[in-house]
């Protein structure tokens, strides 16, 4: 949310400090600055790309003049100066249960994030941040997006971890006030490791996905082209495609490597990453939906993927493509591991037991025998897909809307589908291709069940 603020600090507050004293943060309403090296981390990727472009092209052309060198240095210097100015005009504060983040030189931007609405708090380290011992703190709020999210980039890693604990403690208090003490030895001892991805299994699983199949096709096409032409120069037109495929595979490996899920007193904690690492904490009750994904090739090996949808975007704007993916609690694991994780996330979730009517095979000849659903007084489960089978569980208390949909083929076959939408906006449980009368009964029953579930949860 955005609101105008005065140009200077509030009356009675201290000036913004370059190094925050986090030990007394919750009782101190003064303004703080980010770490002085934050501009290097935030602009690191852009500066590296800029250096490659400015230096690489002259090297390839085998020439470099003094004037070109001065221009290149001036461009890089301007980028660094812009990052420093951005750091200088950025400050943050926690007061009255609200995180306040002010930034902007010519156009002031003041954002307010009520901690009671925080869905999760993440600590993210890029490669440059790890080298400098820094980390970025990200707040996910329902309905937020990556560009407008709460981001403190960057703090010292120890300070970011400590601040995350304090923010979660504040978010757990109904009224604004002092945060509770950090978890003691007993609380830390109660944390349980729920899942740890196998490093030997992850690369094979990625290669057996759609991205892996595309990579295989590109590799085969490149090799065949070279064989027929007899010259490696014909690879040049394939280079953009090859680089794009490699980047996609690398993002998956880098984001899912070392995934560890821990059940802690403050919620579900996740850590993952090879070069860029991410530490997330999902507060209890914030998961909007859970999806079990079983691609065709994975099913033959007994593998699956378990994903969770949390309201609010996780990824930054530059990682928008990755941000469209759900958070993988289990990037790849066995069905037994997925069942244990599902039992941790949901209390006795129902199994899909109501298959689709036989005439649905005329609309979905390959997947009709997988189409099924079930519901109880707390959850709805729906299954769809054939090449990639997806089973989705949605808590009724999280359902935002219920839609009755009937396409032209469904109308002719007397079928209809019911869609359940949640706040996460990435998952829509679809009870697909039901008998028209059954779909009408579902549409008439589920709103009442959802209303009762919300009343019980409140």
Q: Can you walk me through this structure?
A:
This protein is an alpha+beta fold. Among the domains are: 202-256; 285-318 and 326-457, Roll (PH-domain like), CATH 2.30.29. Helix content is 36%, strand content 28%. It has 14 helices and 20 strands. The chain has helices at residues 38-42, 44-60, 66-88, 127-132, 157-171, 185-189, 202-207, 210-229, 239-256, 296-301, 320-323, 335-345, 408-413, 436-457; strands at residues 91-95, 98-103, 109-114, 118-125, 134-141, 150-156, 192-196, 260-264, 267-272, 277-282, 287-295, 303-310, 327-334, 354-355, 372-375, 379-384, 388-395, 399-405, 415-422, 428-435. The chain has a 7-stranded antiparallel β-sheet with strand order 6-5-4-10-9-8-7, sandwiched between helices. A hairpin with a 2-residue loop joins strand 1 and strand 2 (98-103). Helix 2 (44-60) packs antiparallel against helix 3 (66-88). The longest helix has 23 residues, at 66-88. The protein is globular. The two termini are 25 Å apart.
Give the arrangement of secondary structure elements.
Elements: H1 38-42, H2 44-60, H3 66-88, E1 91-95, E2 98-103, E3 109-114, E4 118-125, H4 127-132, E5 134-141, E6 150-156, H5 157-171, H6 185-189, E7 192-196, H7 202-207, H8 210-229, H9 239-256, E8 260-264, E9 267-272, E10 277-282, E11 287-295, H10 296-301, E12 303-310, H11 320-323, E13 327-334, H12 335-345, E14 354-355, E15 372-375, E16 379-384, E17 388-395, E18 399-405, H13 408-413, E19 415-422, E20 428-435, H14 436-457
Helix pairs in contact: 2-3, 8-9
